[in-house]
Structures are given as structure tokens and as C-alpha cells.
């Protein structure tokens, strides 16, 4: 076995780290495109050049670490799904993915229904819906391609927890194109889970590093906080859990192309493990910081909010745990 | 042993319920339930209604204008108020400063300040913490130097809850740097309208700004505003903290959160059924309910000890830890019940998804309630207190 990054991936990581330290805000996206990041997320068949689990894990970890909020994950999932259905999106087009629904934790088809090839109902927390060229929509058992400017489509935007713009998608008899059964799109959806998990892992690492630095520097009772055994042991426990999360992401990235049943167990295990660790880190990082950890001004806050957002995307730990226990596919 | 409330206590509970039903505006209750930030007028309005009924200061003896309730009555009032989503009584004047003035203040101070707390003339906030002095409160540096009839105060306080509304702040200040650091601290009442006081809001993760930084730049405070003796402030602060820690278990708040979560779980759909029917979720819900049942009785056991005159010791630390764990667990479960919908934050922008403010408040509440295990002596500090007492035997 070999867990080392390949030379290509190491170069990708280096250039990505460089870009993420040099560019912020509006300037970031063009720099990422120029470095070929979006293309590295897709296979050649899908119009990209890499698309491996390793590349996806690497890229999203770096983005998560740097705290970047871009609707890159939904765009990647949608592009892969469209490509699999033989309907590639135009090059560089912004794509959105509408999965979560109001009134349910993560079930699909609760708030949305299908009549022929028309959709009626609601989706929620749709990142990047404003200005998207096309939206990938889930219903109870199918995937659809929706044009945002089609009749019967209303997009109601608002800010989301991770700093992105999200939206409610309100559909009234809106025409859409059926791409196929959800069960046939386990591949593209599994990459979405990998991307969310890697993003969370990046934020987890950043939050734990920041907390450790803080404990070394903050003094109370005449000593740095890390000198108090109760806190040192909490940090040690967090370090152990971070490695578990890292392995869960590694497992999924290495099984993205495995046969569906095995791949799905890794999808679920990854969501369960990373979700649990994300929650633990969010709670402990704030607690170990004390009051400062709860403030908007301090860097930890953004990480915590992104962790919470990644935790619930595409099904949280509870949802995937149940499906794992029942031996059900991850997406059906 | 008799675990039932006495007929008197039951009658009192009915009275409280009837009062809440008659006086609590449903719109206000909804804001409280969704953890929306209340305006100053809303908080003051609720205080005024309670005061009109003689119930604002349940913990004060009647000689000072309080209700003189037993600990059990206070518990009943707090639990019923929380379950009805009444605004919580802002603690700084009523629960904290009041008892200190009653025990350590001069007659003049009692006659002047206590009625003003009750009738709403003053809004108090608590100036203890400083950037360098959090858990290690005795490390505080904000200095008060005596000059004739005044103390001249210079330094910074932080985390002052609702200080933006306050006209008065009670502070721990350093009046001596000799000897043990606990021994050079005094308890001072400062008018926030004095020249040299600056207040800056601190925005928290949920987008609210309930805490502030406060600076004192050579602020002149009359010596008459010193409570008790100079350099004895630590004693008064410790006394105040034991008061701050009554109702620390927050049984009423936890019960209200549990009611809310059960309602959410019935409404959310999972596999075509209410989420409350889902075995995994139902088990998690049952577990925290069972924890709450035990904690509620732990709380009552300790209250009835207190009613018999036993001072709360490590019990209040135990209640603080368990109470905050249960509430934070309920917050986490509520987010989980909402799943993907819990990923927006209303207070960061003006609008949220239509009709989904309940789901949104779940995450805001989770974020805001991280404070429960940090303030009032963090849970780690409480564990050290318990462990220290256990070690001493
Ligand atoms: C929302 C909010 C409202 C507040 N309101 C007020 C107010 O109105 N007035 C006021 O005066 N203060 C207020 N506080 C301040 C509060 O009391 C302090 O935040 C608290 O005492 C912790 O101090 P700190 O934030 O400096 O954390 P620190 O003391 O730096 O602690 C950081 C972490 O280290 C842990 N730790 C510290 N020392 C030890 C040790 N010896 N052993 C083990 N663990 C340790 C702590 O438990 C915590 O987890 C408020 C705080 C918050 C968050």
C-alpha cells in the first residue's frame, strides 16, 4: 500500500496552497480556474482531467483549511451527474445542486412531487442557485436537470451558515429533464459526500491547530492553558479523532470506484465518522477557547459554522448510520 | 419522604400559570422560544408586569420589597416561566447585586439602589471579566485609585452581558497590588454615563451582540459607591457567585427545549413517518429526557437542602455541569432533527427561507448556547471545584 501523494498531486497541493495564501475574495475564483482546479475535480469523460478520489480529497481539504466558501461542490456533483446522463454542461458554467428539503431531515421527495416531467414543491439550502446555468434536483427516487429560468421556478436567496448564498427553490409545475434513477448515480453523489467530508476535514484540522496554538499562548493562573492536564488531555483526544476522520476520508477516496455496495459503505462510514468528529471539534474548540471562541471577530467562528454546514450536507451522521446498519445503499 | 408538591405549592403553581396566561403576550413568547434578541423595552415591560404583581424579586426578602419565596417556590416560578417562554428576568440587578447589597451594603446604599432595581430606574450589568482575567478572575487589573472623595478608575472590562442597555455597572476593581491577589480587590458601583466610559459591542457567532467591551479612562466614582470595605471585594464576589449559580441547573429552560424538540420531532418526516417514531432518534430523545428527569430531582433535592438552611457547596457546581450538558445536548438534537435545513443563519442577514425561521433558530441557538458551559465559571473550573472538595474529603 502507498498512502503518499503522487508527484502530480503534490504539485497540485503546492500550487493550491500558494493560491490560497495569495488570493482572497473575488480574485480567488479566477486564480483557481487558471490553476485548473475545477478541471481536476472531473474525469476526462466528464470534461475534466483527473477526477480521482485522491484529487477531490486533496483539493477540498485545502479549501476547507483555508475557509473558502464557493459553490464548487454542488457544481462538481451536478457536472458529474450531467456527464453520466450524457448531457454535459457548457464549459465553465455555474451549476447548483438542490437536495435538502424542508419538513424532513434528509429524506428526498417529502416536500417535492413529480407529475410527468414537471416538478412541484420545495427544495432548501440550495447553494449558488442564483445565477446558475442549470440545477440538479433530487426527488424521491430520481435526478432531474432544471433550468432556473424555466416557468414555475422561483428562487428565494438568503445567506447560509458557511458564508455562501443559499436559496429556497420553489417549483410550481416546473418543467425538468429526468436524468435517471438516483440509484444509478451513486458515483457522482459519492464524490459529493467525499468533497463535503474533505472540506470538513480541512476545517477540522484548521480549528484544532488554532485551538492548540491558543492553548499554548493563553495564560491563566500564571500558566499557559496547555499546562492544565484536563485541557491537554482534551487536545490529545481531539488529535486521535482527527486521525480517525482523516482515515475515513482516505477510505472513501480510495473506494470511489469500488463496486457500489462497498463504495456505499465507505460513503456512510465517512459521513458518520467525519460528522461525529466535526461535531466534537466544533464543541470542544469553542469550549477550550472560552469566550473568545464565540466571537464573530475571531477566526475560529467561521470554521465552526462551516463545520456545522458540512455536517448536515447530503445527510448527517445519524441518517447514514441508520442506512449503514440496515445495509441499505447510500443513495436510493 | 414525599415527592409531591404540597397543596400550597400546587396552588402557587396554578397562580403562576394563570398569571403567565393572562400577562404574557404570545408574540413575545414566540420571540423567546425562537431565541430572538429581545429589545430593551420588551425586557423592561416584562419586569414591570412582574413587579406590579410583586414577583420580580422572588429571591429577595419581603423587607426589601421582594416576594420572599422559598427555594421551591422560586423553582416553580422559574420552571413555569421557562415553559411558557416568558422572558427571563435579567439577573444582574435582581439575582446578583440585590443580594450583595442586602448583605454587605450600607443602609444608604440599600435605601437608594434596591427600590431603583425593582422599579426599573437602573439597568445593571456585571463588570468582572477582563481580557486577561477570565477563569482566573482574581488576576484582574482594572485599577481604582483613591483621590479624596473619589476613586479614579482606569482599565478594561469585557463580556459585559447586555451592557449596551445598562446605565450602571458593578465592578471588581484592583485597589491594592500587595499581598495575595484576591486581597486587593474592591466592589464598586459605577455610573456608565460618567465621562471616560466607552462601550463597544461584541458580535457573537449567531450574529447577536449581547456582550460588550467596556473601557474606563480615569472615570471618577464617588467613594460612597464602594460596597462594604476596601479590598474585601473578593468575599462579596464569591457570595454573589453562589447566587448567580442558583437556578444554574436551568431545569425550566431544558424542559422548554425538550418540549420544543418533541414538537419538532413530531412534525419532521422520516421514512414517511414522524421523526419521533424513528427508533434511533426516539432513543436519543428518550435518553436526554431520562437525564433531565434525574437532574430535575437532583435540583429539587438540593433546593430542599437549601430551604433547610444548608449552604450550597459543590452541589451548585454539579448542577451547572449537568444542566448545561443537557441543554447543549438538546440543542444538538434539535439541529439534527432539522437536518439539512439547519444550515442557514437568519441573524447574519435580514431574510431567511420563508416560513423556516424555526429551523433557522435551531442553529443560532446551538451557537449562542455554547456560552452556557463557559460563563459563570466554566465547566472545567466547576470540575476542579468538585474534585478539590472530593480530594479534601
Ligand atoms: C456570552 C457570555 C456572556 C458573559 N457575560 C459576562 C458578564 O456579564 N460579566 C462578566 O464579568 N463576565 C461575563 N462573561 C465572561 C465569562 O465569565 C468568562 O468567559 C469565563 O469566566 C471564562 O473566561 P475566558 O473566556 O477568559 O476563558 P479562559 O479563562 O481563557 O478559559 C479558556 C478555557 O480554558 C479552561 N480553563 C481555564 N483555566 C483552567 C484550569 N485551571 N483548569 C482547567 N481548565 C481551565 C476554561 O474552562 C476554558 O475552557 C461572559 C462570557 C460569555 C461567553
Question: What can you tell me about this protein's structure?
Answer:
The complex is a heterodimer of chains A (332) and B (393). Chain A contains ten helices and ten strands. By secondary structure, chain A is of the alpha+beta class. In chain A, helix 4 (53-66) packs antiparallel against helix 7. Chain B is α+β, with helices and mostly antiparallel strands. Helices cover 48% and strands 14% of the residues of chain B. In chain B, the strands form three sheets. Chain B has a four-stranded mixed sheet. Chain B is globular, with a radius of gyration of 22 Å. The interface between A and B is large, with 53 and 60 residues. The complex binds flavin-adenine dinucleotide. Chain A: It comes from Paracoccus liaowanqingii. Chain A: Keywords: FAD, Flavoprotein, Oxidoreductase. Chain A: This is Pimeloyl-CoA dehydrogenase small subunit.
Q: What is the overall shape of chain A?
A: globular
Cα distance, first to last residue of chain A?
Answer: 32 Å
Bound molecules: flavin-adenine dinucleotide
Largest sheet of chain A: 4 strands, mixed
Structural domain count of chain B = 3
- What do the pLDDT scores of chain B average to? 92
Class of secondary structure makeup of chain B: alpha+beta
Tell me the series of helices and strands of chain B, N- to C-terminal: HHHHHHEEEEEEEEHHEEHHHH
- β-strand number of chain A: 10
What fold name goes in the CATH topology slot of the largest domain in chain B?
A: Butyryl-CoA Dehydrogenase, subunit A, domain 3
Distance between the termini of chain B: 28 Å
At the third CATH level, what is the topology name of the largest domain in chain A?
A: Butyryl-CoA Dehydrogenase, subunit A, domain 3
Number of domains in the coordinates of chain A?
3
Tally of helical segments of chain A: 10
Query: Level of helix content of chain A?
Result: 40-55%
What is the number of helical segments of chain B per DSSP (H or I, 4+ residues)?
Answer: 12
The mean pLDDT of chain A is 94
Please state the CA-atom Rg of chain B, rounded to the nearest Å. 22 Å
In which order are the strands of the major sheet of chain B placed? 1-4-5-8
